[in-house]
Amino acid sequence: MNASSEFGYVLYIEAAPERVWHALTDADLTGDYWGHRNVSDWTAGARWEHQRTDGSGVADVVGTVVTADPPRHLAMTFEDPAATETSRPPLVTFRIDPHSATSRLTLTHEHLPTPADHAAAARGWPAVLSNLKSVLETGHVLSRAPWEMTDDL
Question: What is the pLDDT along the chain (153 residues), one digit of tens a residue?
């Protein structure tokens, strides 16, 4: 495996695994903290779409649910709808483990084809998951979407 093909991230959330699962799979809630609605019936083999919240219905990412074991494990392919078919599509896996009175959420994004894709994952996933953590722990998203923030002060 080359250094750019996988990205992993772990965070702890003060919420039960069932709430974390709900936050990952509820279209309206993902729209609030992710800026896109994740739409699917969340069963193995089902299609899922990462749809814009502007009402256009445009899906910027699509894929297939590979594994759905609520509330502990969700895996799905993560593909650009305009990309040509690859033999090994990128795969995103969420593992939710109870950890005392919290949950440990482990994200793995595998089969990233280029260093640029790895860099995008390394920028995007911490931002999205920080916003997910904020909404579950405080009831509201961050005052500004983390992916819109720059390092400039």
Answer: 455 699 999 999 999 999 999 999 999 999 999 999 999 999 999 999 999 999 999 999 999 999 999 999 999 999 988 877 667 899 999 999 999 989 999 999 999 999 999 999 999 999 999 999 999 999 999 887 777 766 654
End-to-end CA distance of the chain: give it in Å, rounded: 37
CA dihedral 10, 12, 16, 22 (to 10 degrees): -50
Q: Is the dihedral of CA 140, 30, 25, 56 positive or negative?
A: positive
Residue ranges and CATH numbers for the domains of the chain are: 19-97 (3.30.530.20)
